[in-house]
Amino acid sequence: MECPLLTTSMSNSSIVFLDTAKDFRALKGKIDGTAQHAVKRLGMKMARRLLLALLLGVLVSAHADLIGKSEAELIATKGQPNSKMVSGSKAIYRWDDTEIWLTQGVVTSVSMRDLQKEKESRDGAARANAAMQSRLAMASASQPQQQQPANAYVPDFVKETLAKDAARKANRERDAENDARKRADREVEFARRETLRVETNRLRIETRQAYVNGDRGKSRALAEEYKTKMKEKELVNDRINRSR
Predict the structure, then answer these.
(1) Cys-Cys crosslink for 81: which of 49, 93, 203, 223, Cβ 3.0 to 4.6 Å?
(2) Range of 93's domain?
(3) CA distance 228 to 223
(4) Alpha carbon 232 to its chain's center
């Protein structure tokens, strides 16, 4: 003989179990779909990163043979750079895709440039500078301006002190301008001296090679050019020494 209460309880438990199983399968389907979507997105990201790494490796390997080349060989290979910065025995040449460092006229480092990242960096710095200037202007405008009455009496010694301060300020500004102009001239002279050093080294090597090959005419012409460059180099050194 079956107990009605037990039968009813077992039926309700079966219904609850079936509903729970159905919810579990639905939840499992959602989880599987989300996991597959996440794996697909992760795979796309990994593929993009791998492609970028391979492309970067190809570009770097394409420029790896530039290490150890002279300045003349570098320019013959890549052409004239878009920009050039020289400081002492070191120089930085920049093209659209690469930045190359030279030490004493020899390539020592090659790196790839990310123009988009450089542009974003410059834009960010410009925005930060503009925001700073705006804040300074707002702070200056918020401060009350103290105006001196038109009929206020100013003693003579105060006027003389103000005039002397203005003269000293003008002298300091003029001296700063002169110093800046001298530094710029010295940088130009340093760059010219470095260029002459590279050219004289090249001419000396080519002159010796022409002499060894028996080409006396070419050897004499290169020797004359070498002497001219050396004289110009001495003049540049004299100008640098006088500017110290």
Answers:
(1) 93
(2) 67-140
(3) 9
(4) 34
Euclidean distance between CA atoms 206 and 223, whole angstroms: 9
In a domain, 234, yes or no: yes
Quick: pLDDT tens for 166-219: 999 999 998 888 888 888 888 888 888 899 889 999 988 999 998 899 888 888
Give the residue among 52, 110, 60 at the shortest CA–CA distance from 81: 110
CA dihedral 105, 107, 113, 115 (to 10 degrees): 20
Q: With the C-alpha atoms ordered 60, 63, 68, 74, is the resulting torsion angle positive or negative?
A: negative
Note whether 174 and 237 are same-domain residues: yes
Q: Does residue 176 sit in the same domain as residue 98?
A: no
- Residue 145 placed within a domain: no
Which residues pair with residue 85 across a beta bridge? Answer: 92
The token duo for 226 is 């070498």
The secondary element (H helix, E strand) that includes residue 136 is: helix 115-142
Query: Has residue 6 been placed in a domain?
Result: no
Give the chain's domain count: 3
Q: Which sign, positive or negative, has the C-alpha torsion 210, 215, 219, 222?
A: negative
Shared domain for 166 and 242, answered yes or no, is yes
